[in-house]
User: What shape does this take?
Amino acid sequence: MRRFGLRGIALLYLLVILVGPLAMVFYRTFEHGFAPAWNALTSPETIHAFKLTLIITAIAVPVNTVFGILCALLIVRHRFPGKGLLNAFIDLPLALSPVVVGLALFLLYGRNGWFGPWLSDHGIQVLFALPAMVIATIFVSLPFVAREVVPTLREIGNEQEQAARTLGAGGWQTFWRITLPSIRWAVIYGVILTTARSLGEYGAVAVVSGRLQGQTETATLRVQERFESFDLPGAYAISLVLALIAVLVLVAMSLAKPKEEAA
Amino acid sequence: MSIEIRNVTKRFGDFTALEDVSLEVEGGSLTALLGPSGSGKSTLLRIIAGLEQPDTGEIAISGALATALAPQKRNVGFVFQHYAAFKHMTVRNNVAFGLKVRKRPRAEIRERVDQLLALVQLSAFADRYPAQLSGGQRQRMALARALAPEPQVLLLDEPFGALDARVRAELRDWLRRLHEEVHVTTIFVTHDQAEAMDVASQIAVMNTGRIEQVGDAMTLYDEPQTEFVMRFVGEANRIGDRFVRPHDLDVALDPVDGGVEAMIDRISSLGFEARVELAAADGDALTVQLTRERLEELELERGQIVWVRPGRDRVFAEV
Assistant: This one.
């Protein structure tokens, strides 16, 4: 009975906090039939917004994956001055509000920022364009791969890598044949979290994008824009697609579980 | 394929792991580095493999200076105490690893791996993963893997340390036979003197970062040069400033010249021999090893006062 009670509380909590709102989104989307939702989703601006979100994600995720693995290797396998600082800095995006990140980028790349004048002299548009949105997304989704990989690297130790060395493998061969396969589940998990974070980013991108419809408007920004324009079915429909992507990500995550070496 | 270690010193922060260590290992021999934990034996092995860099000193393998060579260029096989099995690879691919990174032809790799798996009696397990093997099997796989690229030198770091006693003894025999067959210069690290004496043709006894003595098992046992070696390679009694092995002591029922008065604490019969534990008059604990006949002849019992007389004893200069 007692266990059932605890289970009930946990389920109820999830229902109220997570499932309820999502179910409402689903209901509202199709409240007036399929057509309004479909029209909202197939408008050129919405399609552009989804494309933009995917492009940003497609750049941010590989960059953060490579950088995350590199940082994890540095933190676990090497000793160097400033290592503690690196370790702390990696968590910074988790602690910092995305809006602050956006403002910081503004101060760097804005007209009176450090890099702004030089960049505009050379005809490079960063703010209110794809580069700033990509940088903002990379910034907020930076910790996930490194944070997943660090404990796994610690756990496997470096004996396998040393064994590979004594067997004649160079540094690169050791990485591809031993280290990477050993941490692959952590990397996959980190990639999935990074993807989810990149798709859902709102605050930092909102500040640096300028929110130009059909130009610098991502899917999450589009939801807000539709909401403010009293196009509720539109907002719900886009939200639903984002939620569906999140569910797909979750399914991918549960499929990406270690199997053969579970012992 | 000889190995020469010349004046190697290694420090980890304040801790001196090796202090001016020199050692020569003959090609084709089987040498044990014997010592308690913290004596520097594993560090020395790792320096030979290139997994650690010495602060000063040199390593030469087959006469060629290897100190500056990366581990992958030294052509050594290394076996780790905890196997270091590649968990994501099958047994076959573990053994093939050293050949694959050398880009040997596929057919040659297959043939060599089959041959090695047969040698370590793992042919039936070729397609299993390390997690599906027992400790002894994993260590045999690790040995086959180390031998696959035909190393000049085979280095084993406490190879049987993580195994239970029966498997340990089995693998020990097996290593000795393997060495007779393959004849690769082998150095293995152990803290178990029986293991070292059983397997190795040459033993280097190490203590606090130095080599105390190098020799074969009999020499170390019969002619130890330091108190540490005397105590580490076998049991030893201390009588005053002299050291005596338990089987070099005899018991007399009456006072004798050079005898030490002692009371019998315990007598344990171990079949063909017996151990008598005594407390000397000055409080020292003594152990005497007697044959069964001698024990029956003396009719000793607990609490009895006897005189213990050393046969062969040794005095060591204070270090």
Observations:
- Chain A is about 80% helix and 0% strand.
- The mean pLDDT of chain A is 89.
